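Supplementary Note 3. Input sequence used for the single-chain structure prediction.
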Amino acid sequence: MESLAAVDLGSNSFHMVIARVDHGGVQIVDRIREPVRLADGLQEDGSLSDEAEQRAIACLSLFGQRLRDFGAAQVRAVGTNTLRRVRNSHRVLHDMSKALGHHIEIITGREEARLIYLGVSHGVAGAPARRLVVDIGGGSTEFIIGDSFEAVSVHSMFMGCVGFTKQFFGDGKISRKRMNNAKIAAGLELQPVEARLRAEGWERAIGASGTIRSIASILNEAGWAHGTITADGLSKLVQAMLTAGRLEKLELPGLEADRRPVLAGGVAILSTVFDRLGIDEMWVSPTALREGLLYDMLGRLQDEDPRDRTIAMLAKRYSIDQAHADRVQATALGLLGQVVDDWGLRSEDAAHALAWAAQLHEIGLAVNYTGHHKHGAYLVASSDLPGFARDEQALVAALVRGHRRKLDDSYFETLPEELRVPAKRLSALLRLAVLLNRNRDPEVVSLPHVAAAGNKLKLTFNDEWLDAHPLARADLEREQRRVKPIGLRLTGFEA
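The predicted structure, written as discrete structure tokens, is reproduced below.
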């Protein structure tokens, strides 16, 4: 029975859940939560304070001890709003990943929302199919409308309990004016999606994650609600906070000590959501992002990778020649199989990225043939790609950008340092696959023998094949010059 672990590096707290795969589902066996307050350490210039970074690394070192015997495929660790905003995030993530002992990826707000909805859907069995899910995090709030297990509409808004508490209640004082100002700011943030959310409609509103669960606990302990969050109970909580006047004076049943410092901002946001969306009652989910990560990992293990569905939908949307894309993919993976060890590309991530880039390498033709590799890279980099982490999306975009014409180190500069060399090598393989399929012949391409040593790639063709394909030989000789700027050498086919 395999174990899986999900690590959520939130703006307020870091969480880890460990589960066993059991009869096609996941069974939680351990949970760890640490209130790291990462958003408190985000400076105006986008840097992360040394204190916040050290708190994060200390926490991740503890998590890493628990994950010592887990393989890379068993762990998925993601960073959300604050890490999305950190300047020089590659360096920060490198240090944090080292402490955890596993790779940490940054996910977009929309991907965070998709995973939250996936987790909530598995935790609210029996709830009406059409739902609005609201998740108030430390730095962002996600709104998702979905049917059953499928998210239909996702929105990530730039407001969270840590940021709002810091902005409107930073000195600990709670007043009606400050609460009103916080609610006005939340209303302005919600305004662009408010009409759309109302128009799409839902049968039940469901809240998720720590802030909402904490509010629900307070209301129930105080007798202001019974198992849910109600508009009336929320109003009573606001009044109790105004009466206390200061965060440190809040004495509310059900309020945990580490939630007190960020409660005011979370209450202001949730009150605004109730008011603006006309919510009278909100159910509370026991599951959210972490559980969504687990079920997403389970899908990948069971060959139901949402990233594959995303690539297929994108290819269909832009009318890509599927048969040609499949041929290029088969050729690229055939080349990869010969150099996978010599070039250090054994990980499944490398094969996935190469296959996805092969599927999408001609996506830019939907814009214009001239410069279609550039158009394609922009479309891949700018599209909403459910299931993809930020670096995964950037890698596929870089491979699409570099699949033809000249190559340059600058194409790979936006990638984390540890991905740059693998990206250049994958780019060379994709370029060769495209070149070998240039005739768009439906017949299967006869693969050359490929041997890699350092930055050198030697191709050995059947002499008769090269003689029968003089254009391919000319293309290969041109390719020798084009890969030199990224430090690669192609040999073995010279006339």
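DSSP finds 18 helices and 14 strands in the chain. Residues 305-491 form a domain with the Hypothetical protein af1432 fold (CATH 1.10.3210.10).
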